[in-house]
Each structure stands twice: as C-alpha cells, then as structure tokens.
Sequence to fold (229 residues):
Amino acid sequence: MNASITKLLTAQKIDHERLVLLQALTKGSVKVELDKANQTIVDSKKNLLQLEADAKNLKDNYEKVSKIITETLALVKQANQAQSQDMGEYGDYLSKLSILESQLADIERKIMEKSSAFKNATVSVVKASDFVKKNLPTYEQQKQQTDVQVKALEKQFAEATNEVDEKLLAKYKAARKSKVGDVKDVLVPLTADRRCQGCYMDVPAAITSKISADGWALCEECGRIIYKA
Ligand SMILES: [Zn+2]
Fold:
C-alpha cells in the first residue's frame, strides 16, 4: 500500500474521533432541547405579534358595532317619542339591534379567545426562555470541553499527515468538508468486487486502473477517496 495512504488511514482514525465529538455536541440532548426552546421562543413571538394584530382588529370592530348600537338605540328612542304609527320601522330597529348585539357578543367571545391564546404564548416564551437561561451554561461548558479536545485532535491529525502527499491530503480535506454531519470515512478501500465502500456503487474500469496505477482515485459517485486495499 502507498505510504501516504497508510499514514492517512491512521490520521483518519484521529479525524473520526474529532467528528464523533462534534456530533455528540451538536446532537446531544442539551443542544437538541436548547434548539427546541429557541424555536419555541421564535414561534411564540411571531404568534404574539399576530395575536396583537388580531386583537386590534377585533377592538376596532367592537367599537364600530358599539357605535352602530348607540345610533340605533337613539333611533328607537326617537321612534318611541314620536309614537310612530309605523310599527314596521320600530320592529326593524329592534331586529337590527338584536343582530348587532349578537355580533358584539361574538366579537367579545373572540377577544376572550385571543386574550387566552396571548396568555398561553406569553407563558411559552417565559418557560422556554427560562429553560435556555438554565441550560445554556451546561451546553457552553460541553462546547468548551469539546473545543479543547477537538483542537488537540486537530493537532494530532496535522502531525499524522505531515508526510502525506499534499494532493491526496487536499482531496481528503475537500471530501471531508463536503460531508457535513457525516462521520463515515471518506478514505475507503476498493472492495474485492470493485465497489466503493462509501456508496457501494460499482467502480468503473477507468477508475480501478487509476487506483492500481496511483494507489488511489476519487469515487465518481460519492467523491470519497478509494484506495487499493
Ligand atoms: Zn463512492
């Protein structure tokens, strides 16, 4: 096996440790719960803004309907005073009043609903903010520890790859960078049945000859480095 490949394989083990540490940090329960709480804060705040706008519209409507009721009551009073013979007109006012009053009751009911939703959303923001406040230090402590370990591993990786062929190392780093959140190896052996161990696709003859000649080649399917085992 190519000496650079042997060294890079050792380095890859160190790199894998680094990736696992980073994954444990970002997918750890504290971080997941913090992300959830932060999302709740964002969603609830958006909800509160909408509820505020809804409440304002309802209040405007309430005032509008109240005003019409006052006007209609004045008309009823007038009709009463004039002892209008037109009972039809009087009846119209009364039925109009009854419709308006049920509209007003409906608006009141909606205002109550919005007000209760507003309270709930406010409680959600407070609870989620408390959670973030309580748990952020734990996460930050975890992150600090991880950062220290990651830096040490990066140093080890640099040392282990000191004598690795520059082009191969650059390809390794590029392949690694392109697989964010993936801890699977990017330097993989060609299997006996000529498949890439990364994506399990058949490796075309042109690539297998390149692997035979140079010791390694890039997988056309997944971008990993396939080496001659
Ligand atoms: Zn592949």
Remarks:
- Residues 87-160 form the longest helix (74 residues).
- The chain has a mean pLDDT of 94.
